[in-house]
Amino acid sequence: MPHTNMQNTLNSALSDVISALHSPRFTSTLVTLISKLVDYDCAVVLGYRQHKHPIYLYDSIDDQRDLLFQRYLTNSFQNDPFYLMLNQQQQQGVFTLTDIAKQGIDYQQYQTDFYQKTGWQDELSILIEIEPTRWIVLYLGYLQSDKRFKPQQVETLKSYFSVISSLCQTHWQQGGFTLASPVMGTTEATDTTKNCNNDTQQASDHIRIAIEQALLSFGESLLTKREQQVTALLAQGFDTKEIAEQLGVTQGTVKNHRKRIYAQLNVNSLSELFQLFLNHLITHTPSIPTK
């Protein structure tokens, strides 16, 4: 009976993901599916494009989030051992820190600079190729010092990798990387499941709403509505060509907007703009409500 219940839970979660394909709900429902397969404390989903900043898609972190935005997405990602392995190997799959060590990639300094400051104790990564220059990376982490990912958990994820990767490829091959929406109640769930996931989901929804509000309000007193649109896309990691395609304007128009945005916000580079937005996000994000 327990096995049957587990299978029913997985089938329900998988049905949710399939229903969410090509919608903003996809990333959230995908993470929910993965949570039915393995236990973890937090998750981060990023979109990687060759030689560009990663695109933030989703996270379930409720503490030390400023380090994710202030450090990782602006600069530290370049020293991320999973990112380095992706660039070196271009290999899909489920990977642990042990796999990183086997590849001869030194992650000790990164562990000191980033893991210890965020509180992450262990981490694994799911690397999925959408196309040769675009990848999805899902990070799963433990914050509790007595928890580590076990071989059985890794094997479970590997056994479902073809399903997870196929879903991601189907969803993202036809569209760009965009922020996730919160999971909406599309299927019936048991009271126990709802209670277990309620706090985590509320925190995730709160985080997403805070990010969207920050994107909408960033520079509003200095920029025009169109410049705000361009700024929000720049802050998410999109380049000039991608912004032009999304807004239906020429690349020259985007470049002109970008020059004025830099002047109005008193920044000289994309990195400085990124830092300014992240400071805005942190200072304008209220604490996550608790019971």
Automatic annotation (TrEMBL):
<dbReference type="InterPro" id="IPR036388">
    <property type="entry name" value="WH-like_DNA-bd_sf"/>
</dbReference>
<keyword id="KW-0238">DNA-binding</keyword>
<dbReference type="InterPro" id="IPR016032">
    <property type="entry name" value="Sig_transdc_resp-reg_C-effctor"/>
</dbReference>
<dbReference type="Pfam" id="PF00196">
    <property type="entry name" value="GerE"/>
</dbReference>
<dbReference type="GO" id="GO:0006355">
    <property type="term" value="P:regulation of DNA-templated transcription"/>
</dbReference>
<dbReference type="InterPro" id="IPR000792">
    <property type="entry name" value="Tscrpt_reg_LuxR_C"/>
</dbReference>
<dbReference type="GO" id="GO:0003677">
    <property type="term" value="F:DNA binding"/>
</dbReference>
<protein>
    <submittedName>
        <fullName>LuxR family transcriptional regulator</fullName>
    </submittedName>
</protein>
<keyword id="KW-0804">Transcription</keyword>
<keyword id="KW-0805">Transcription regulation</keyword>
<feature type="domain" description="HTH luxR-type">
    <location>
        <begin position="216"/>
        <end position="281"/>
    </location>
</feature>
